[in-house]
Amino acid sequence: MTATSRGAFIVIEGLDRSGKSTQAAILQSRLQGPEQSTTKAVLIKFPDRTTTIGKMIDAYLRSQSEFDDHAIHLLFSANRWELASTIYAHLAAGTTVIADRYAFSGIAFSARKGLSYDWCRAPDIGLPAPDLTLFLNVEPGVARTRGGYGEERYETEDVQRSVRVVFERIGEEMKTDGQGQWVEIDASREKDLVARNIWRVVEPLSRGVASSLRKLWERDLTT
Ligand code: DGP
């Protein structure tokens, strides 16, 4: 990291069981390197189920409580906003932040229920914008065969297929409107190969980022 640079903000997105959490952990340890004395990378998982809002989300995902679709959408977004200041602080200190899911999951999982795409995007406008989003792409039929599948509310092949369609739309928009990099990674491949492909894209950001941090969909921010 140079004197004027900040940490990079990297988001990992994808369907359930696409390997996000595994790859996020591999990436963090790679960024952290052999000297553990200074923190070079932190991992933040969304939803963060430890906060008061996160506990409400957790109960919903485990089908222990019910919410109106709009209300749960706003809770997921609030859960991201409550961690925004933590993200800013880490980046300013030169620490890379890896987020396991972010606002893109918010849109994909709610818009597939029939809520308007623009309405779903609105509450996350202005969050810290990632420098890089890695979309771990996997066939929903492949994800279904992976361990632990089916334990939570959205883990059916049908839901995941419709979520993937919305992710494709988000990816197209992100690629064309200069909102940081959106890179698709074939997550059906073997774990170490996926990790190497991820590292190839992340490596240039691993020594810090000189440009200032942007806000997500900032052109839609009005005062
Ligand atoms: P995970 O802990 O990564 O398995 O995510 C839990 C589930 O929550 C997963 O099925 C995806 C879903 N999810 C994540 N973020 C959001 C969001 O912002 N909105 C909605 N509706 N669902 C989300």
TrEMBL record:
Its EC number is 2.7.4.9. One of its GO terms (biological process) is dTDP biosynthetic process. It is an enzyme of class 2 (transferase). It holds the Pfam family Thymidylate_kin. Transmembrane segments: none annotated. The keyword Heme does not apply. Belongs to the thymidylate kinase family. NCBIfam families: DTMP_kinase. This is Thymidylate kinase. It comes from Pisolithus tinctorius Marx 270.
